[in-house]
Model the fold of this input.
Amino acid sequence: MELTVNYLTKHPEVVKMVKQGMVSLLGVSKEEEKAIIQSFNEIEVESYYWQ
Amino acid sequence: MHFDVFSNSSSTNIKDLTASIETLMLALDIIDDIQDDDNEEAAWAKMGQASALNIAISLITTSQLHILEDSDDSNSLKIILRYLSKSIEGQHQDLYGNIDSAEQYINMIKLKSGSLIAMAHIIGASFGELDYSHIIEDYSYDLGVAAQIANDIQDVIKFEEKSDWKLKKKTLPILYLLNPLIKEGEIVRNYYNGKISFDTLLSYKEEIINILKQSGALNYTVAQKILYEQRALTKIESLPISPEKIKILKKHLL
Done:
């Protein structure tokens, strides 16, 4: 899961494609995929936990 | 709350039992502060460790005595001691275990924190007629993990004297950066390997906070928190109780 997240931080376009259902993430379960994508949403919308 | 949801009876003893459990939790908080040598503003910290420890022992003893005196059977005390024992094991792993992976860390948290949450929930539910303890235990552990991860997220940007960084604790975001395959984590690995001092790490504070964001450490940690919250939610929704009671549990626990 760590490497998948690390990859997505470098390829934000893939995050968009997963959100649109065009691709799925390899090496993680559907449950984990959903949580990972949601983490990118939460950080964008809530402007990070540390502000 | 679990008493209200799972039991159809009323019992004045539940309030006494709740008070006894809170007394026990206070004792554990005191012991945790002594072990971590922090929370200097607490009333017990100002008394000195010997006095604080004595107070904690007294509270543990008193709470268990009250439980025995108030209950018709020893079931509540058995539940408390069972989960207290697991929590102590988790605390021991936290203090002395060699946590090297997210899986080990999460298992430790389940024991250390999740057990105490499970204890409180299962005691309340034990007054009901049916036994849902396995499901309750499961989601209690998940909730304990999610709560600890939330703490880890807040604590990882603190670099003061008793911080996770200073104490070289291995919380989830730090474990992410300790992974040698995460290239951005090199400075963190150098610190944990003893190649650089804490003062040197401190001088890179702003850079480390950026690394936490840009490397995906924050995303990873948030994703894990969401995962455990979702698992808890699914388990709560699987309980064979009325939708109204499920709604009450979800409202208070999530």
Notes: Chain B touches chain A through 24 residues (CB under 8 Å). The mean pLDDT of chain B is 87. The CA atoms of residues 103 and 172 of chain B lie 10 Å apart. Chain B is about 70% helix and 0% strand.
